[in-house]
Amino acid sequence: MITSFKGKRVSSMLGILPETIGNFDDEVDNYSFPAKQTMRLKKIMGYNQHRLAKETSTVSDFAVYGLNYMLDNEWIKKEEIGAVVTVTLCPDYFVPHISNIVQAECDLDTDVICFDIAQGCSGFLVGLMQSFMLLEHMEDKKIVLINGDVLSHKVSKQDRNDFPLIGDGCSITILENGGEDEIYYEMHTDGKRGDALIIPAGAFRKPSTPETGAMQDQGDGNFRSLDNLHMDGSGVFNFVQTEVPPMFKDVFEREGKNIDDFDWFLLHQPNRFMLQKLAEKSGLPTEKLPMNLVENYGNLSGASIPFTAIYNCKEELLSKKNMCCLSAFGSGLTWGVMFMNIGELDYCEIIESKF
Amino acid sequence: MNEQIMEMLNELRPEFDFEDSDDFVMDGLLDSFDIISLVSMLEEKYECKVDGLDIVPENFSSVDVIVELVKKSGGKS
Fold first, then answer.
1. What is the predicted ipTM?
2. N or C: which end of chain A has fewer CB within 10 A?
3. Which among B28, B32, B53 has CB closest to A233?
C-alpha cells in the first residue's frame, strides 16, 4: 500500500518505562554458551541494558499510568480525546481490549472510540496510519495512540537468541488535525514468511498446556518452550537486508528525495548490527540514524520508534520541525516507510513507572 | 589469509576442530551469532565491509569460501 495524508500532526510524545533494569553482564551465566563467546556479542549487537516489566505488569498498567500523567499535567484534556488506539502483541486479556480498559481506568467519555490492533515491530507506522484515517472524521478531537508490549514475559531467559535484546515499555503519541504538511506512507506485508517471528502456543490454534510450557533444548544451545517467542534470527536478518534497502531506493527515486532532505532517520531498533548493515546497504548517514535503543532499553517492539525519537531528538522535536524518515520492519512479516514532519511538539518526555 | 581466518575460527569456537569439517555451518560448528561475530572480526582485521546480503550460511562453510567473501568485500590481506 502506498498513500499519503495531509494536515495531520504529532503534538506530544510520552515514553513509559518499567523501573526494572536487566543487565546483560549479569545474564551471561543464564545461557549455556561460553561466557567469552556471549560477551563478544555485547558490542556487536548493542546488548547492555534492557527494561523488564514486573511479572504482574501488563500493557494497560503502563498505558493508564502514562495517560493519567498526561491528563494530570494537562498535556491533553479528557474532552479533547476522540479515540484511543492501542497497538500491541500483548493483550491483558483476549477480551476486553486494552483500549477499553484504558477508557475505563482513565474515566474517559463513552463516546470515545476504542480499539486494539495486533501488530509488533511495525506497530508505530500502522498505528499512525489508522490514526490519520480516524482523524479525517474527528474534526478537533485528538487521537491517543498507544504502542506497548511486555514481550519479556514470553521470552525464555535461557534463550540467548531472543532474551538479551527484548525490552518492555509503552509509548503514547497524541495526534491531531493541523497544518498543511504532506505525509508519505508505504507498507508491505508477506505473511508467507510470518513463521520467522512466532509464539507457537497460547492462543486458539494451540492453547497452552503443561506440554507447551515445557522447556526444550533447541539443539543450538538455547532453551525455550512453545509458549515462548521465537525469532529466526538469520531469516529476519536476511528479510530486512533483502526488502528494506530496495524500498528506500525506490521511494527516494519516486518521491525525488535524497538523504539531505531528512533531519532524522528513525528506524525500528532490532539490534545495532542489523541497523549498521542496513545503513551501509541503504547509504543512510549514521549521524542521522540513532542505533542506541537496544543498549539502553532493549528492542521495544512497536514503541521503538517513538522511544528512539524522544531519547535522541527531544530538544529538536520540541524546538523545531524535523523532516523524519520513519521505517519499521519485523513481525508479520511487514516493512514500511513514512516521511513526515515531526516537531514543535507541545510535550516530549520519557518517564519511569513502578510497573 | 587462510591461516589467519583459521585462527579466528579457533578463537571463536575453541571447542571445535574446524580442520575436520566439510561445512562449518551444516556441521554445527558456527551458528548465526558466530557468523555475526566472525563478520565483525573479518571487517576489523581486513578493513572491509561485508554486504548484508552476503551474510548467509553458504558464505561461511569453509575457510576458502570465507577468504573469497573477504576479497569480494574489499578486504586487504
1. 0.86
2. N
3. B32
